[in-house]
Amino acid sequence: MFLPYAPEYGWYPEEAQESVILDFGETQEFHRVNFFLGWIDRRDSDSEVERNLTFSFGNDAETADSEPVFGEKTERTVESVFDWDGFYTEETGRYLKITVDEGNFYMEELACFDVNQRLLKPVAVYQGNASAPSLFDE
Fold this sequence. Notes:
Largest sheet: 7 strands, antiparallel
Number of strands: 7
Order of helices and strands: EEEEEEE
Number of helices: 0
């Protein structure tokens, strides 16, 4: 029996336009990206709940000392919290970059799947603040 749950820990972006880059170790074929948004600090926001998230998939950098090359962006407007959301995609890449429009909220969990519903797990997290690895702890 499947029991839905609410994750307890997650990434807490504090600044507008803050990003996190997830490294999946090798090129993956992404089919679905699910995420769970938690608490939102609305004290300094005109928005009640709405947050805009940008997802982009990337491949290895052209040179060893440059950043990964990212393709087109998928933008998602999220209007609810304490709930799973997500989108289907047909992207290929080694990296997934997530950028937030505003900070001061929690992305509690992130789950990426391939076309066979196999969970894709990142091997490293770049950028983002110290809370970013908590996206995959549960």
